[in-house]
From TrEMBL:
It comes from the Bacteria. It comes from Goodfellowiella coeruleoviolacea. Pfam families: MaoC_dehydratas. InterPro entries: HotDog_dom_sf, MaoC-like_dom. This is Acyl dehydratase. Belongs to the enoyl-CoA hydratase/isomerase family. Residues 19-107 form the MaoC-like domain. The lineage of its organism: Bacteria, Bacillati, Actinomycetota, Actinomycetes, Pseudonocardiales. Coiled coil: none annotated.
Length: 143
């Protein structure tokens, strides 16, 4: 975690540091245990393919959490996020080939609101695919 960001130090257009997170099969097992989401599409290639998916996929909430972590790390406070909304556009596919999936998160301050809040636009991709649609986050910064 970094030092908290000051509201006065950011302007619309301020780019947050790009973050890349890796997601491997072991991460899916750990997340399933923590979330109690043992849906077979997150661990069984057969079940994933039967559901029309190309392979095992990461939990949607895990994908959202990775994007959120990029923001809370930047803000310097995990409690700084006041609102977070997104929709899923593509799944994060996690094949069993020894290479983890890579989720890249880029974000920019879209709007400065009443002190000390900012609205942040986020782009989360895995390869060439956007995995979240219209993720918008409201973050309260240090005054």
């Amino acid at each position: 975690m970094t030092e908290p960001v000051n509201y006065t130090d950011v302007q619309p257009g301020t780019r947050l540091p790009t973050r890349v997170f890796t997601v491997g099969r072991a991460d899916l097992v750990r997340y399933a245990g923590a979330s109690l989401d043992f849906n077979t599409i997150h661990w069984s290639e057969r079940a994933a393919r039967d559901a029309g998916l190309p392979n095992v996929i990461a939990h949607g909430a895990l994908t959202m959490a990775l994007a959120l972590r990029a923001l809370t790390d930047w803000a310097g406070d995990p409690a700084a996020v006041r609102d977070y909304r997104a929709r899923f556009s593509k799944p994060v596919v996690v094949p069993d080939d020894g290479e983890p999936a890579r989720v890249q998160v880029e974000a920019v301050v879209a709007e400065k609101l009443d002190s000390p809040r900012v609205r942040v636009s986020v782009t989360a991709t895995c390869g060439a695919d956007k995995v979240l649609v219209m993720p918008r986050v409201l973050v309260a910064l240090k005054e």
